[in-house]
Amino acid sequence: MFADRAKIYVKSGKGGDGHVSFRKEKYVPNGGPDGGDGGKGGDIIFQVDEGLNTLTDFRHIRRYCAGNGEEGGKKNCKGKNGEDLIIKVPHGTVIKEAESGKVITDMSGENCRYVLLKGGRGGCGNQHYATSTMQVPKYAQPGQDAKELDLLLELKVIADVGLVGFPNVGKSTLLAKVTNARPKIANYHFTTLNPNLGVVDLEDAKGFVIADIPGLIEGASEGIGLGHEFLRHIERTKLVIHIVDAASTEGRDPIEDIYAINKELDAYNHEIAERPQVIAANKIDMFAASEEENETVQRIRQEFEPKGVRVFPISAVSGKGVRELLYAVNNLLAQMDDKPVVFEQEYFPEFKGSKEPYTVIYDEKAGEYVVEGPRIEKMLGYTNLESEKGFTFFQRFLKENGILEELKELGIQEGDTVRMYGLSFHYYQ
Fold it and tell me: What's residue 178's pLDDT?
């Protein structure tokens, strides 16, 4: 089975303890402190490996620990730093905090290396604690504790276009026809057991990446059948090609099929259901030779084209109508933002168990409410407030950390201004 999901435990290295020792040299009866500092603990680092395309390795190894820093030594010798642990993942892997399911980082786009947990700081040796009144300090600083986290890894393939539809409607056949991908093809349900990617090259056009998503059935969003295992792979796609069996070779009505699959997409993620979609009415090679366009295709057009969804009669086997479909899809993609779909950070490991202070005050002179603190500043640095998802996360952050409650206690009203590190917002409930 294609491995696109894994749960693992990671732990950074503990910082080495500072050392307690004193100089012992001939003719130096009262040597001063010379305990060295402890070494820094190793970091947990995630790195994209273009040679990987599944998360299979994580099914065999589920625990990952970086090296601990060594204790400091005599004669001001610093302890050796712990070794960093580099964990390699496929491009497109989304790393989440396991319990909450919140995104920590998305290993796609330009994000090819990410330090997820930093190792503990090494403790200071006793040499740092000598003063005029305490010349023989007999204590040193312990190393900083390691950080640990349970993670959920999810691989979401990176494609511009997703092929969706019931099993056995011809998705794999179309993919094989228009790309160099070679999916297994057979005439039985769930032939495709893993997402297949292919690149569509067009003359005088940019081309695009297309993903064949394993067949869905009714109830897939609730976990029925195998298709639900792969719904996550269309989360990055910008456009959906919905393939139906226009010849009704299995006795199903294609219009009912389209509505059923769209219902599953909407139940899984409403945003996906709202993305642009075109319908490929497949298997027209099975129509009678005299039929230019049979009654079923006409019914599909009448049902969906008034709603802005174009319908393309095609034969994935013979290639008839496929060129028109591909160029139409390419033109639609050209009108969209070419920025890749990247999932924004929602969980910050450095804040786990952290009680970093923040302040919420009313600046009477400016007539503004001011929210400040290191955690607030870091959050704003990580978050793209211009995107809808980023702003939603920002609002949730304020609520979960009690900041909205404190603003209410200070008497904030609708329309009042809140300032955070140079950014100003109007408050609305």
Answer: 80
User: Residue 212 in contact with residue 230, Cβ under 8 Å?
Assistant: no
Q: Give the C-alpha separation, 123 to 127, whole Å.
A: 11
Give the count of beta carbons closer than 10 Å to the beta carbon of residue 262.
17
Cβ contact 56:119 at 8 Å = no
- Partnered with residue 96 across adjacent β-strands are 103, 152
Q: Left, alpha or beta for 92 (phi > 0: left; psi -120 to 50: alpha)? A: left
Sign of the Cα torsion 313, 317, 319, 322 reads positive
Residue matched to tokens 């302890």: 79
Q: Are 127 and 21 in contact (CB under 8 A)?
A: no
**210 with 178: CB under 8 angstroms?**
yes
- Residue position matching structure tokens 């991908």: 181
345-354 in b/e form (b: 16+ CB < 10 A) is bbbbbeeeee
CA distance 216 to 235: 15
Predicted TM-score of the model (pTM): 0.69
- Whether 142 and 123 have beta carbons less than 8 Å apart is answered as yes
For 53, other C-beta atoms within 10 Å of its C-beta total 18
Strand order in the sheet with 423-426: 359-363, 368-372, 417-420, 423-426
Q: Which residues of the chain have pLDDT under 70?
A: 1-3, 27-30, 180-195, 215-230, 288-293, 351-357, 375, 378-390, 422, 429
Which tokens is 155 given? 């691989």
Q: Which of 46, 42, 21, 25 is nearest to 33 (CA)?
A: 21
Q: Of 67, 74, 59, which Cα lies nearest the Cα of 16? A: 67
Residue 37's contacts (CB-CB under 8 Å, 6 or more residues apart) are: 16, 18, 19, 72, 78, 79, 122, 123, 124, 125, 128
Q: Hey, CA dihedral for 282, 283, 285, 286, is it positive or negative? A: negative
Residue 256 identity (one-letter amino acid) = E
Strand, helix or coil at 211? strand
Find all residues with CB under 8 Å of 291, minimum gap 6, and list them. Answer: none
Give the CB-side neighbour count of residue 35, counting CA atoms within 13 A.
25
pLDDT value, residue 66: 96
d(CA 328, CA 325): 5
Q: How many residues does the chain have?
A: 429
The single residue listed with the structure tokens 């009678």 is: 288
Please state at what angle helix 254-268 crosses helix 295-304, rounded to 10 degrees: 40
